[in-house]
What we know:
Helix content is about 75%, strand content about 0%. It is built from eleven helices and no strands. It has helices spanning about 1-10, 20-35, 35-45, 55-70, 75-80, 90-105, 110-125, 125-130, 130-150, 155-165, 175-180.
Amino acid sequence: LDLYQFGLDQHLLQDNGKLSRFTINNIVALAQKSENNERAGAFINTYSDQISPAYRQSTVALNLARLAYAKGLMNEAIDQLQSAKDQDVLTTLNIRVLQLRVYQQLAEQRLFDSSLDAFDIYLRRRKDSLDYHYKAYRKLVSYLRQFRRLNLHESEQLEHFKESIIREVGLPEKSWLLKLCDV
């Protein structure tokens, strides 16, 4: 984070006064990974005007949704996600996965299932443009469907599911899936 801050202060990360939405996403993700949500929020507030106008709204909304989720403010996260529409495939993947996380946290199983189905359809329609992301996120969909069918009171079944996640290579959201098993 300090290295990113240095790059920002020295204008090394800006191109013609603009910051890449991917740089913003990476900084917020790094701040959250280091459990520094306040710094992430301050960063969004300070630098959001440097994001290209074409991507500003969706980038800010996605990152504010991430912060709200981390703070346990699920309704605020949903509000932000509903306004975070983007044509970029990778950003859309992030939006859809965060929606699933929020619905799971809220125990909104119908919304979760509906969003999971929509996510699956989205992946299939974008198969050619997703390259290796397609396979990775299809694995995630598969594991989420398996999780929904699990009897969470059957410790042996749950342990087997957990072990298969641990063994899986190239699985996005692996740590979230493992947390789901800690019921």
